[in-house]
Amino acid sequence: QVQLVESGGGLVQPGGSLRLSCVASGSIFRIHRMGWYRQGPGKQRELVAAIINGGDTNYADSVKGRFTISRDNAKNAVYLQMNTLKPEDTAVYYCNADLTLFSAAPNNYWGRGTQVTVSS
User: Fold this and answer.
1) Contacts of 60 by beta carbon, 8 Å cutoff, 6+ apart
2) What number is the average pLDDT over the span 6-35?
């Protein structure tokens, strides 16, 4: 079994910052890619940022220059530093990972999500 557990969400004023964390646990052999997605009210889930094993990253255009994704491979963790937050960043943020377990094929996993609300 694999668990992805997010933390760090909350309520913040426009222009503020938050740092999301996600830790993957279980019989993990290798993590290939980790990322953050979000789903705002009445919207479809969308990719926010992702990072692969080599360190390459990609970001949604709407967050470029404001958000930074990073990984700690030793901790099986991924982080999302969110600066200059805007009300339109309000959403449930989900951690996602492509990983391989011992004695299993690669698969994709989701966390349960953490709420980020940007409001004055």
Assistant:
1) 46, 47, 48, 49
2) 96
* Residue 27 backbone phi and psi in degrees, to 5: -85, 70
Q: Residue 103: its pLDDT value, please?
A: 83
Instruction: Show Cβ contacts of residue 36 under 8 Å, excluding neighbours closer than 6 positions.
Output: 20, 22, 47, 48, 49, 50, 69, 78, 80, 93, 94, 95, 96
Q: Whats the size of the chain, residue-wise? A: 120
Contacts of 87 (CB under 8 A, 6+ apart): 14, 118, 119
**CA–centroid distance for 21 within its chain:** 7
**Which two three-digit tokens encode residue 37?**
């997605």
Query: Which among 107, 120, 114, 89 has a CA at the least distance from the CA of 21?
Result: 114
- pLDDT score of 104 more than 90: no
Whether residue 48 contacts residue 93, with contact meaning beta carbons closer than 8 Å, is answered with yes
Above pLDDT 90, what percent of the chain?
93
Nearest to 50 by CA among 23, 24, 79: 79
Mean pLDDT of 40-53: 96
